[in-house]
Write a structure and sequence with these properties.
Strand order of the largest sheet: 3-4-8-5-7-6
Number of helices: 11
Shape: elongated
Radius of gyration: 32 Å
Length: 389
Amino acid sequence: MIFKIALKNLFAAGLRTWLNVFVLSLTLASIIFLQGLMAGMLDEMSSLRVAEEIGGGQLWQESYDPFDPMTLEDSRSLQPAALSPLVAQGSACPVLLLSGGIYAKERFKNVLLKGVDPEQNCLELDFSPLAGELSDGNLKVMIGRHFAKNLGVSTGDLVTLRWRTQAGAINALDAEVVALLETQVPAMDQGQIYLSYSKLNQMNQTQSFTSLLWVKPGVTPSAPSGWVFRDVDYLMRDTLEMVQTKSAGQSFFFALLLLLGLIAVFDTQALAVFRRKKEIGTFMALGMSNAKVTYLFVVEGSLQGILASLVTLVWAGPLFYWSTQTGLDMGISGEDFGMAFGQVFYPLFGWGKVLTAVLLVNAMVVFVSFWPVRVIAKMSPANALSGRL
């Protein structure tokens, strides 16, 4: 009976009810959408970095520190014999790193020279243009598309490379850009010049020297002495920390949106107690206990949250599904501000997060529905009928 009365009163309120439902629905849809947006961004960034930068993990020479270029010269050594079977099977791909510079279009820039196996299959990147030799004797190099644009060079252009050998001598050679590397991971694009692994060793006057090895996904190697294995979680740590920072800011925005929606419900309930005192007194005079009258008003407020959830499902559900199928064109690529995602990415709506958002909103609606009507528990029928609290 209480539910029927509450439902009747809810729709009898007319526009006031639908305004509350609209605000709550907008709040709920915003929370779900922003959570899906962040989850989709994290998923794409993780997928791209694993596919084009991390692989299944990396084996580092123990002195290697990607954030300290001063250690670069000390962080390459002869490739351990224990890793030779993995390299022969294609489960690990050696990489040699040298600091150097590039002279192109009358400009000089410091770069990182990366020697990679042209036939590597640890990452989903195509280095095959580096295989073989050029007829004119020039070096074959690849440059990331975005970095090539900054340098003003394109396929077929000649550039000059300078580097320091293992013995400390300074050398320079002309090189031809044979292809542009297509990657959406800024760490594999900006400031990187790619050469053949064997050729860079020859330029360094070494043989089989290695700074790190990319590991094929699904392979977990044991690190020999002098080497350290970094798994995907370790290498993805900076991305996860960034997402956690963004999530903290999102939580503040969610709280602000939720507060605005709950204020509408609170005001409606508070106003109902003052406007419907005679109705409350009538219910009490007919034998309804104060607790049941309070429960009636709480049910009325709670139904607004349930109705808002259903309305959100009707108008926002198709929009969410459409965004997961067609993606969202952000107008800019993540490369423009150092993040690994493309111009179009796809939100990811997990049932767990959706249900959590729905339950959170409805739980808060129940709370703010009860808070202003708790005064009913102290009212007497005579005072209520006379319009006094």
